[in-house]
């Protein structure tokens, strides 16, 4: 029988002694470190938490006895015998990651080693028509759990990423799912329905969290993560910390006005970057070009398919050598590069990670972006910035949703132990 008390219970700390609370706090921090950083040696633990080797060994042995961790081979030697590695035990708990998109929902169950156990990839969904998402998510998630055959008792929490102006602190999405009659916040309603910890966050920030914890940004200090999908999002890492802003809304990169007297953006302003450098812009340009008689393999699509054309369809055409698709991707990339040039001069990052559907266009999007940066950015800054495509693949946003669950679970336990 798995025992999740260490991560889920708080009441037992109230009547515990200072020594017991300190020990609890140290064990939580060790688990947190192993979860996010992977298997650790005793020396790693000592250095990370400034504790003695006997204290570290004692805590590690207790976590082994409590069935949380195990010895997992040996690490690299710096001279002499190779040190033992300590890792989390398999299938200790589970987390559901949910990714809401404009026209579909993607969700998956992960174990505590971040192995994806089961996934629903394309659940039909229209975000602009959905007022209440709570029952829909609960029923779909329940089916996923039943199909996998796990005990819901060991579901630690649910992380939900979504587009829009999302305040994780208030638990609200100020763009979608607005109901004037609803007296509780979105995450309160979800927590009540699931009877589990639920955390919501913006999809670009979710991708940033994934890169920060599991991707290319894990060993960097100053990084920008640009999500390129239907919209354009930005995650910001400054001095080794994910930056949220005073109200949690930092990174609304796509809504910077870039074009004078430009097209009307769905945010209500004209000429936003998203109107010329996003999946929405790419689809609009494709439809306009096809209707104007441009030569393209996209002309084989039916009228209905053209009206509903997805960015992925255009990217696939470009990867097959379709010149029209390549040209409009290039135009989007040049506009996006202008915006990125501004970001480089504002933040002076060491690394910019491009992630999302557009990353699959590879050189057809990265080359025009780089050309635009070369044109519009100061040489002294751009030469110090590396631009890379994400290595996390299609699961980056889901992994970020999982990461936010675990960050909050650990931090809540640490906060409780410190405040009792």
TrEMBL record:
SUPFAM superfamilies referenced in this protein's UniProt entry, alphabetically: Actin-like ATPase domain, Winged helix' DNA-binding domain
Mind telling me which residue stretches traverse the membrane in this protein? none
- UniProt-listed InterPro entries: ATPase_NBD, ROK, ROK_cs, WH-like_DNA-bd_sf, WH_DNA-bd_sf
- State the PANTHER family in the record: BIFUNCTIONAL UDP-N-ACETYLGLUCOSAMINE 2-EPIMERASE_N-ACETYLMANNOSAMINE KINASE, ROK (REPRESSOR, ORF, KINASE) FAMILY
Q: Which family does it belong to?
A: Belongs to the ROK (NagC/XylR) family.
**Protein name as catalogued:** ROK family transcriptional regulator
What species was this sequence derived from? Answer: Autumnicola tepida
């Amino acid at each position: 029988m798995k025992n999740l008390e260490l991560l889920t219970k708080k009441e037992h700390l109230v009547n515990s002694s200072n020594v017991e609370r300190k020990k609890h706090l140290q064990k939580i921090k060790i688990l947190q470190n192993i979860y996010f950083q992977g298997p650790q040696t005793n020396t790693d633990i000592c250095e990370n938490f400034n504790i003695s080797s006997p204290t570290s060994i004692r805590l590690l042995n207790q976590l082994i006895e409590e069935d949380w961790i195990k010895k997992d081979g040996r690490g690299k030697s710096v001279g002499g015998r190779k040190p033992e590695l300590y890792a989390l035990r398999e299938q200790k708990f589970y987390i559901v990651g949910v990714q809401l998109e404009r026209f579909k929902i993607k969700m998956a169950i992960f174990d505590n080693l971040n192995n994806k156990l089961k996934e629903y990839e394309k659940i039909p969904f229209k975000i602009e028509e959905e007022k209440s998402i709570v029952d829909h998510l609960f029923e779909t998630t329940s089916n996923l759990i039943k199909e996998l055959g796990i005990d819901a008792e060991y579901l630690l929490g649910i992380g939900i990423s979504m587009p829009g102006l999302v305040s994780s602190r208030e638990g609200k999405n100020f763009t979608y799912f607005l109901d004037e009659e609803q007296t509780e916040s979105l995450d309160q309603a979800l927590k009540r329905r699931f009877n589990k910890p639920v955390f919501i966050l913006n999809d670009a920030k979710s991708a940033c969290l994934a890169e920060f914890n599991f991707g290319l940004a894990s060993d960097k200090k100053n990084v920008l993560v640009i999500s390129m999908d239907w919209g354009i999002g930005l995650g910001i890492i400054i001095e080794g910390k994910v930056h949220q802003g005073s109200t949690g809304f930092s990174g609304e990169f796509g809504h910077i006005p870039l074009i004078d007297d430009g097209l009307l953006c769905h945010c209500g302003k004209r000429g936003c970057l998203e109107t010329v450098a996003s999946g929405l812009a790419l689809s609009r340009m494709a439809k306009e070009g096809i209707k104007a008689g441009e030569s393209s393999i996209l002309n084989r699509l039916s009228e209905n398919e053209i009206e509903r054309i997805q960015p992925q369809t255009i990217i696939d055409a470009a990867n097959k050598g379709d010149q029209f698709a390549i040209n409009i991707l290039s135009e989007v990339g040049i506009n996006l590069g202008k915006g990125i040039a501004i970001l480089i001069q504002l933040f002076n990052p060491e690394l910019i990670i491009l992630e999302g559907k557009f990353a699959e266009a590879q050189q057809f999007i990265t080359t025009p972006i780089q050309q635009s940066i070369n044109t519009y950015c100061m040489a002294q800054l751009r030469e110090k910035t590396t631009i890379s495509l994400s290595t996390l693949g299609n699961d980056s946003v889901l992994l970020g949703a999982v990461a936010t669950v675990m960050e909050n679970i650990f931090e809540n336990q640490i906060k409780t132990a410190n405040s009792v």
